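Discrete fold record:
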Amino acid sequence: MTEPILPRIRPEIAALAPYRQGKQAGPDAFKLSSNENPFEPLPSVLEALAHTTPINRYPDATATRLRERLAARYGVDLDQVHVASGSVAILYQLVQAAASVGDEVVYAWRSFEAYPGLPLVAGATGVPIPLSADARHDLDAMADAVTDRTRAVLLCTPNNPTGPIITADEFTAFVARVPADVLIILDEAYAEFVTAEDAVDGLGARVFEDHPNVVVLRTFSKAYGLAGLRVGYAIGHAKVLDAARATGIPLSVTAAAETAAIASLDAEGELLDRVAVIVERRTALVTALRAQGWEVPDSQANFVWLPTGDRTDEIAAAFLAADIVVRPFSGDGIRISVGEEPSIDRVLHVASTVR
């Protein structure tokens, strides 16, 4: 049969692998591949969802009620808050707005899996900078990589998938080295799980006030347990966020997502109690894995990293055979989300057998 003639696609896009989601789990397996919150939504959140705007009506295109809550929370103007369908959507919007053909986007690697595709889709060139030996951002090397072609720098803290933070002092020194007309995106999707006192806190420190080129990203997917509803937000200079709003897909944040996010803010105390439980499990998991001889980085997120190198696929298969779905990165390592309490012992058992 003759192959049909297809529309012309940019070669770099045709060669770009689609985003790979963490493998789905069977009914008896623990799904520890996507950094999801293992707890069910709070009853108050479910109750709020029951009274969501009817689905035959369009949502508020700018999620005004949620933006008002976040603006009041962080003491900023309404137009300094942008809401989209997950913080990853805002990443795409900002890079699209800042970079194009001939431009460069600097990011650490290995880091969030979506980063390499962001500049490519925009027509720009990605500049990946290897992590340091302790699986952290090498900010000196990243600053050295900034040129007159650089339009954006992506910083992920805690770093996904390895877990370590960027400290406040490191971030301050880095920003001082980067030209003020280069966009710095501080991706803090896992900020609520951070317990390290020296960690950068882009919103608490209000870094966007002294540095208008800094935008801070947060999400309701992880700590707040709303991954299935897709809602994230950015805080930054209004004109920078206007650029993100201009490149965004209209009406992408549903009324259900906005309602659930507001209800989650109302119930934040209960949710942060759950975060504390996850942090306790993370600490126990890291301690036990290190006792087995694994070189586990200091994770400040809701996952841990096993640097399994060439054995990654083999070890991931061993976890899967034990009904534990993890996230392997071939030739590099395995990310294991901190999940339900019973999953911890099973993870440790498998890890001990493949060490």
